[in-house]
Amino acid sequence: MSQLDNPLAIYKLLPKSNCKLCGVATCLAFAAAVIKGEKRLDGCPHLESNIIEEFAGQIIKQATPEDLFRQILEPLKQEVITLDFASSVKRLGATLSGNELTIKCLGKDFTVDSEGNIISDCHVNEWVIVPLLNYIIYSAGKELSGKWVPFRELSNKTIWNSYFEHKFEKPLKQLTDSYPDLIEDMIYIFNGKQVENSFSSDISLVLHPLPKLPLLICYTKPEEDQESKLNVFFDTTAEENLNLDSIYRLCMGLLMMFQKITLRHIK
């Protein structure tokens, strides 16, 4: 029999009696717990010992989101250990104190030590950790061009373009429509800066998720016969200073923060 890597494969071995003697409500729930590593196969009192001996070693534990995050994080920390922080300050737009780099993220200080650990006076969300470490390791330190382009012009990979529009721009537009004060919150909470209206918008706002990765949010208010518009633009150097995956992660993290802000005010 092939390796057991999903709950249904475990479920086929079980009596399907839902006796609850294993401590969970159903045999399927027990199977899911085994795959997650929360239960052992011998936790089912009805399984014969020969079945347990034959299959227990073939179970592949399902990776949790925490496991997957650690798998991504550890190699990045190992890369950070090899960096010369002193020579990276200008490249990153950072400051150096001893063996620690401090980088502004949305106006807040995030400090990274020589082992890749991140500390800040504000809460360090998981979504900012990987992009921040990627920025420290891989940013080319390209000086900003001052020219703005939509996400689709950063890459020719259409799957990214579709994801960005539907997962970030459209939800952000809906939030701004339902909570017009969100723009003001971006300015006061996240150190945003309103700039001269761009791309025929009513409001143009620049945020700096990272020193050399600004983004421009352009919003046009709804009118009687026309719905609102919201588009996000990046400096043409964006992909040289941060990879697309991390740019996408940062934007989705921003969206989650904005959603929390609006929920607090709506309540």
UniProtKB/TrEMBL annotation:
Key words of the record: 4Fe-4S, Iron, Iron-sulfur, Metal-binding
Sequence ranges assigned to domain 4Fe-4S in this UniProt record: 2-61
Protein name listed in UniProt: CO dehydrogenase/acetyl-CoA synthase gamma subunit (Corrinoid Fe-S protein)
One Pfam family, short name: DUF3786
Keyword Iron-sulfur: yes
Keyword 4Fe-4S assigned: yes
Molecular functions (GO terms): 4 iron, 4 sulfur cluster binding; metal ion binding
Record InterPro entries: 4Fe-4S_dom (IPR007202), DUF3786 (IPR024264)
Superkingdom of this protein's organism: Bacteria
